[in-house]
């Protein structure tokens, strides 16, 4: 079985989190992709986030119609920041027959050398680098070890589909002002949920 793992704060989840993952699943023949909603992102220690359960609920709603894409509560249940390598090792133990694929954005891949125990990650999972708005690895000066890693078969650089110009930061600003996001950027169920519970106001 090929199992994809895609982590983030998803605050809120939008089509930029869904479209490239759907395409990656199809292109690579992944059986499932688990969205890992992080309760306490280690790289965002001071930013106020919507409650973890609310972010998980939004991911569930956004993925209802998506074949093979599921929300996982694993990282939410940890009473501490979740580190990617530890999450990968958990799923390696839980699914020993699975071939793990870690899906990350191009910006995250460029900063991989700053992650906790980052050198251990490619040994546990293949890295699938998704396109991100404003990020082109071909034109960036990468850390030498990251550049070397990108040239190995442990990394898959996906170029399609073109990244969607949508960000959670911008969406939070719109919701905080009581405005609707542009059509097609956010699931209707997620919009209704955000508005019902005033998550960003």
Pick out its properties.
6 strands; alpha/beta; single chain; 8 helices; 201 residues; 6-stranded parallel β-sheet; globular; Rossmann fold
Overview of the molecule:
- The protein has 201 residues and is an alpha/beta fold.
- The chain has one domain (2-165): Rossmann fold.
- The protein is built from eight helices and six strands, in the order βαβαβαβααβαβαα.
- Strand 5 (126-130), helix 6 (144-150) and strand 6 form a beta-alpha-beta unit.
- Helix 2 runs antiparallel to helix 8.
- The protein is globular.
- The chain starts with a strand and ends with a helix.
- The model has no long low-confidence stretch (mean pLDDT 93).
Give the helices and strands, then pairings.
Elements: E1 2-8, H1 15-28, E2 32-37, H2 52-62, E3 69-72, H3 84-94, E4 99-105, H4 106-110, H5 121-124, E5 126-130, H6 144-150, E6 155-157, H7 168-176, H8 188-197
Parallel strand pairs: 1-2, 1-4, 2-3, 4-5, 5-6
Counting DSSP H or I runs of 4 or more residues, the number of helices is 8
The multimeric state of the shown protein is single chain
Number of domains: 1
Query: What is the straight-line distance between the termini?
Result: 42 Å
Q: Enumerate the strands of the largest sheet in spatial order, edge to edge or round the barrel.
A: 3-2-1-4-5-6
CATH architecture: 3-Layer(aba) Sandwich
CATH level 1 name: Alpha Beta
Which structural class is indicated by helix and strand composition? alpha/beta
The fraction of residues in strands falls at: 15-25%
Strand tally is 6
Instruction: Determine the fraction of residues in helical runs and give it as a percent range.
Output: 25-40%
Q: Low-confidence runs (pLDDT<50, min 5 residues)? A: none
Overall mean pLDDT stands at 93
Coarse morphology: globular
Rg measurement, Å: 16 Å
From the 3D structure, determine the CATH topology: Rossmann fold
């Amino acid at each position: 079985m090929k199992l994809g793992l895609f982590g983030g704060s998803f605050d809120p989840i939008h089509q930029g989190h869904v479209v490239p993952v759907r395409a990656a699943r199809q292109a690579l023949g992944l059986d499932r992709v688990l969205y890992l909603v992080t309760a306490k992102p280690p790289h965002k220690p001071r930013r106020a986030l919507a409650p973890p359960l609310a972010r998980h609920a939004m991911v569930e709603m956004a993925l209802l119609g998506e074949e093979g894409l599921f929300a996982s509560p694993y990282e939410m249940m940890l009473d501490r920041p979740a580190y990617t390598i530890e999450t990968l090792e958990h799923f390696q133990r839980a699914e020993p027959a699975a071939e793990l694929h870690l899906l990350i954005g191009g910006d995250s891949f460029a900063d991989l050398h700053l992650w906790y125990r980052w050198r251990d990650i490619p040994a546990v999972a293949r890295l699938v680098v998704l396109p991100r708005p404003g990020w082109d690895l071909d034109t960036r000066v990468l850390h030498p070890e990251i550049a070397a890693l990108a040239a190995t078969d442990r990394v898959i650089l996906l170029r399609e589909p073109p990244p969607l110009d949508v960000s959670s930061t911008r969406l939070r600003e719109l919701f905080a002002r009581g405005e609707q996001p542009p059509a097609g950027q956010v699931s209707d169920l997620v919009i209704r949920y955000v508005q019902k519970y005033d998550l960003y106001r």
